[in-house]
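no rush on this but wanted to send it before i forget. what follows is a protein written twice so to speak, once as letters and once as structure tokens for the fold. mainly i need to know what kind of three dimensional shape the backbone takes. thanks a lot i owe you, the record is right below.
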Amino acid sequence: MSGLVAHKMTIFMQKRGDKDDSIPHLHIILNDPCIDRITSAEDMVIIVNCTSIKEGVDDYDKTCILKAGCHPFIVRDSYITYRRITLESAYFIETKIASGDFITYAPVAHDLYIQILSGLLSSKAVSLKYKRFIKAAIEQNACGDFQPIGII
């Protein structure tokens, strides 16, 4: 299964902490598998969740707004829920895809990927642990050709 998980990949999965009967959400993988320099795990990726903006609700992270149509799955304006960011092993994701628990979908376009990754680096909702991880992933060339300007 090695090599299936990569940056820009999208998957449908339950949000962490949700009940089994909840509706799966679109999640985006932000890096190719790389070494977590804190734990020395070798196949780690960061995953962010995409959530629709509810009409009349103004209490959401406005760091990265995704306009309807920016991805085939996104039919309503949405946002990246950076406070729900997770770090997972690529093996875990590949196993869940193989079992049918996670479903892959079209990857995000390059411009959208850059917007989401830049948002991670600037969002106040992202803990230092995840910012350090993604900075190390960038140093390991695990984020494609992403080169942050003035953020790192």
Q: What stands out?
A: The chain has a mean pLDDT of 89. Strands lie at 10-13, 25-29, 44-52, 65-66, 78-80, 86-89, 103-105. Residues 110-122 form the longest helix (13 residues). The two ends are 33 Å apart (CA to CA).
